[in-house]
Amino acid sequence: MDKVVASAREAIEGLENGMRVAVGGFGLCGIPQVLIEEVHAAGTAELEVVSNNCGVDGWGLGVLLDAGRLRRVIASYVGENKEFARQYLEGELELELTPQGTLAEKLRAAGTGLAAFWTRTGVGTLVAEGGMPWRYDADGSVAVESPAKETREFTMLDETHEYVLEESLPCHFALVRAAKGDRHGNLVFNKSARNFNPVAAMAGRVTVAEVEELVEPGEIDPDEVDLPGVFVQRVLALSPERAADKRIEKRTLTETPQEA
Do residues 213 and 121 share a domain? Predict the structure, then answer.
């Protein structure tokens, strides 16, 4: 039951080129930076990443992007990374833009054993009808576009609406970060740093959690557990220095009124 590993390299053992990886975080909040850096150091490439976004230039998943290690990204927002825009528009990277709630449910559904689900989100748009540019050619023409998805009408409470079928997103690996974890893999997330981490963890065949504070089993009140250890296979305890190394995506300052 002791899932603690001795090093970041041991934590990502088995992660191979071409695999699909779910990565927790939102912007730079709650991202598993130590594990991302270890994937970079290991030289793993051609990855398909499922994450809300792709970090920023030089931090978060931007580290792997800058090194050309990503083949495909499934995300809901990618607007903070200039290198991402360049690679996508020049045909070096494939992108499947997905509505944010749908993306979260795709990951959660994978963790609960569901192959697919029906949702109204995206009906009447390119999400359902197909034609979204997934990959461009170097000349700017569309090389790969999204296919049309199955739609169907359902009647609930005397109201009939059209729904689109969305497939779940099981992943070979999942990399997440938690504020606290025990040796059994039970995790506690800190406020908004929870974000996509629980659903990303649920989707992984092998889920690795880097934790800022490692405690012994029984020290976490069961009512405080945000993600049960059944979804986590490996736990990496961070040093105090690595746990404190957090970046702010956008810093906004308010000027102090000058005294008269």
Answer: no
Q: Are residues 160 and 195 in the same domain?
A: no
Is the same domain home to 131 and 214? no
Give the pLDDT confidence score for residue 252 in this predicted structure: 83
φ, ψ of residue 259 in degrees (nearest 5) = -70, 145
Pairing of strands 47-50, 159-167: unpaired
Model's pTM, two decimal places?
0.94
Closest CA to 214 of 237, 234, 191, 194: 237
pLDDT tops 90 at residue 258: no
* 5, 234 Cβ separation under 8 angstroms: yes
Q: How far apart are CA 57 and CA 191, in angstroms?
A: 25
pLDDT confidence tier of residue 256, bands split at 50, 70 and 90: confident
| Of the candidates 198, 195, 188, the residue with the CA atom closest to the CA atom of residue 108 | 198
Backbone angles phi, psi at 7, to 5 degrees: -150, 165
Same domain, 124 and 186: no
Same domain, 94 and 127: no
